[in-house]
Structure formats: structure tokens, C-alpha cells
Design goal:
There is one protein chain. The chain has a single domain (6-215), classed as Alpha/Beta hydrolase fold, catalytic domain (Rossmann fold). The chain is built from eight helices and six strands, in the order E-E-H-E-H-E-H-H-H-H-E-E-H-H. The chain has helices at residues 44-52, 68-77, 99-107, 122-129, 134-146, 149-161, 198-201, 203-215, and strands at 6-10, 28-31, 61-66, 83-88, 170-175, 190-192. Residues 120-124 have low confidence and may be disordered. It comes from Hymenobacter properus. InterPro entries: AB_hydrolase_1, AB_hydrolase_fold. Keywords: Hydrolase.
């Protein structure tokens, strides 16, 4: 890519730019903030097209997606052929979902779970997300507190129904002890110690990986 690299960062479900606060990237950095779904059943690809409007079609760039943001990064990349994708704590195929996710996908049981309960269970969320210390835990609690239940319900349904985007060239970074997506580390080029929140706990190493990727192209 000629000129300084351009990064578009897409946070995970319910998260925002706070999860990227410890990254130190050399180049132009934009955070793609979540949009309000147009309806409870808005298709993911339609949503991704709206999100992609912030990415110029002729601009070489890096789409860096965390967790559910990685799914959106792949969908946006399908519309922006000059974009390159980096997944952090994310997945490429429904086959990578843990057994409970595959069960929910097959049965539709996720529709019966009240999304409002997640902010009420920060200790459970702490275990699943692998928040290791007080700072990570406080940030996780803030994110859970600020999560919109309607957006969460829409996003969970889209995530579990997503068929994948085979064929995209993708670089993957994953935690070796990710309890939400445990299969990801074996399928990633960069397996880092930590859980689902390595975007925070391993921000220094992830920054180095992203900067090296950007300068090598």
C-alpha cells in the first residue's frame, strides 16, 4: 500500500472505541461505530453495506475486526476489494462456534434468552471474556452496562445465522485461552496468551503485529 497505512477498526458486540484505547498504530486510524439496525431482522449483508459507506471504495486499507466486529469486517471486505482483513478474537465459519453456539444456531434457542440479563451477570461475563485484572473487569462492566439490549438481540441472531465468507485472505490473531471461541487459536497465524479480551491485555503485541503487517505490504 502506497502512503501511510489506513486502519478501520470494528469493535465487538456491544463495545465501542474503548476496546482500542491501548493500541498504538502507525498510520491513519478510524473506528467504525455501530449503526442502529433498521429493523429487528435487517440482514447482516445489508447492515454491512451501510457500515461500508464510511470506507472509500478505492482506498487500500486494513479492516481490523474484534469478535462480532470480525464478522462485519469480512462482510465489508466483500464490498471493498482493496481492503485487507485482520480478525482478532473472531471466527470465519460457523463450524468454529463452540458446541453451545452450534446448538443455539440449530435450535434457535437463543431467541428465548433475555439479553437484558448479561449486564446483570458481570462475574459470569468476566470468566467467559477472560478479564484478568481490575482494569479489564471495570471496562467490561462499563461496556456491558452500556450495551443496548435490542442491538444485542439483533447481533446475536445475525452472528449465529452467519454462513461465513470463504475465500477471503485473512490474518487472524487469537487468544490461547479464549472461552467464547476456543477453536480460534489453532486456526490463527498469531496465537497470543490470553482470553477473548486480548485486544486489551495484549494490545502491545497486537499493535506490533498490525504495524508490521501494514509496513510489509
Amino acid at each position: 500500500m502506497a502512503g501511510p497505512p489506513v486502519f478501520y477498526l470494528i469493535p465487538g458486540l456491544g463495545a465501542d472505541e474503548r476496546v482500542f484505547q491501548f493500541l498504538r498504530l502507525h498510520g491513519e486510524v478510524h473506528v467504525l461505530r455501530w449503526l442502529t439496525p433498521q429493523s429487528p431482522t435487517e440482514p447482516l449483508r445489508h447492515y454491512a453495506a451501510r457500515l461500508a459507506s464510511a470506507v472509500p471504495a478505492g482506498q487500500p486499507c486494513w479492516l481490523v475486526g474484534v469478535s462480532f466486529g470480525g464478522v462485519l469486517a469480512q462482510e465489508v471486505a466483500a464490498l471493498r476489494p482493496l481492503a485487507r482483513v485482520v480478525l482478532i478474537s473472531s471466527f470465519m465459519s460457523p463450524r468454529e462456534l463452540p458446541w453451545i453456539g452450534r446448538l443455539a444456531r440449530a435450535t434457535g434457542l437463543y431467541r428465548l434468552v433475555p439479553t437484558q440479563v448479561l449486564p446483570l451477570l458481570p462475574r459470569v461475563a468476566k470468566w467467559f471474556f477472560g478479564a484478568r485484572n481490575g482494569g479489564e473487569y471495570r471496562l467490561l462492566k462499563q461496556i456491558l452496562r452500556d450495551t443496548d439490549p435490542d442491538f444485542t438481540r439483533w447481533a446475536v441472531a445475525r452472528l449465529l445465522q452467519w454462513p461465513g465468507r470463504p475465500g477471503l485472505p485473512i490474518v487472524r490473531i487469537h487468544g490461547t485461552h479464549d472461552r467464547l471461541l476456543p477453536a480460534g487459536a489453532m486456526l490463527s497465524q498469531h496465537a497470543l496468551p490470553g482470553g477473548h479480551l486480548i485486544i486489551i491485555s495484549q494490545a502491545v503485541k497486537i499493535s506490533r503485529i498490525l504495524n508490521e503487517l501494514a509496513t510489509s505490504c
